[in-house]
Amino acid sequence: MGTLLQIAASGPDRDAVARALEEALAAVGRVDRLMSFHAEDSELTHLNRHASCRPQAVDPWTYAVLRRAICIAALSDGLFDVTVAPLLVEYGLLPRRSDPMPEAGDWRDLKLLPEGRIFFQRPLLVDLGGIAKGFAVDQAIHALRRGGCTEAIVNAGGDLRTFGSERRPIHLRRREGLVPIAELRCGAIATSSPHAIQPDRLAQPLGSIVDPRRGEVWSGDGSVMVAARSCVIADALTKVAALAGPGCRSLLARFGAQAYWDVDP
C-alpha cells in the first residue's frame, strides 16, 4: 500500500500473541491483494476493466470498502470520491495503463448490487488508496483482538488504531520535526498532508488528495488529522476535512469523528 507497516501487540499468552500477529499481517496482505491499484492481478484492477460491461462478484471486504466509500461520498456531496483515479493518473500519482482512460463519471455511477456484485453504469477508474489503508488497519486490529491480545497498535504510514490501557502519544510532522499533540488509548487516527517529497523519510508518501470539484491536487498549508472509532472512517474523512475545512464538523460528528487542522508555521 505504498507505506511502512508497524504492528505491536502483547497479551498473557505469548504463543497466542505470535499467532495473532501473523493473522494481522495476513489481513493486511489480503487487503493489498484485493484493492491495489498498482497490481495487475488485483480484484480492483479486474473491476476497473470489466465492471462497466457486466456486474462483477467481489470479495466481501472489497464490497464493504466500496459501500463505505459510497456512503461517505453521498454525505459529503462528492468531496470523497474514489473515482478520481483518472486525475491521479494524469498527475503522475498513479501508474498509467494501456486501458482506455474513462472520460466521465463519478461515485454515483458505482452501483452495489445484491449477492456481493458491483456494476459501473459507465466506464470508471476507481482507486481505493484513500480508504483501503484504514480498512486494512482495522482488519489487523480485529485479528489481534480475536487472538487474545490485550494491548496493540497498528500503524500504516500515519493511519493507526490502538486498544488497551496504555496511552500513546500522537505526533504531527512539521518542519522542525515530530510534534506531540494528543494521546490515544482506544480508537483510530488518520492524517493527510499536501503532496510533497520529504527527503528525511525512508518511505515517501505516494498518494495525494484530489479535489473532485476542481480537478486539482490539494495544496493546503498543513496537515489534517481525524480521530474516529475505526480507521477506515478516519482515513476517508481526512480527505473531506482537508477539502472542506472546519465547515465539515457537523458531518464528522455524524460518524463520531473529530478533526484537527494544523497549519505548519
Give the tags.
alpha+beta; T-fold; three-stranded antiparallel β-sheet; 33% helix; globular
Structural write-up:
The protein is of the alpha+beta class and 265 residues long. Among the domains are: 49-120, ApbE-like superfamily (T-fold, Orthogonal Bundle), CATH 1.10.3980.10; 154-263, T-fold (Roll), CATH 3.10.520. It contains seven helices and 13 strands. It has helices at 14-35, 43-50, 60-75, 85-90, 132-146, 231-244, 249-254, and strands spanning 5-10, 56-57, 110-113, 117-120, 151-156, 159-163, 168-174, 177-184, 187-192, 210-211, 216-217, 222-228, 258-263. The strands form four sheets. Strands 1-5-6-9-12-13 form a six-stranded antiparallel beta sheet. A hairpin with a 2-residue loop joins β7 and β8. α5 runs antiparallel to α6 (231-244). The longest helix has 22 residues, at 14-35. It is globular. It starts with a strand and ends with a strand. The relative contact order is 0.17. The model is unreliable at 201-206 (pLDDT under 50).
Secondary structure: elements and pairs:
Elements: E1 5-10, H1 14-35, H2 43-50, E2 56-57, H3 60-75, H4 85-90, E3 110-113, E4 117-120, H5 132-146, E5 151-156, E6 159-163, E7 168-174, E8 177-184, E9 187-192, E10 210-211, E11 216-217, E12 222-228, H6 231-244, H7 249-254, E13 258-263
Antiparallel strand pairs: 1-5, 2-4, 3-4, 5-6, 6-9, 7-8, 9-12, 10-11, 12-13
Helix pairs in contact: 1-5, 3-6, 5-6
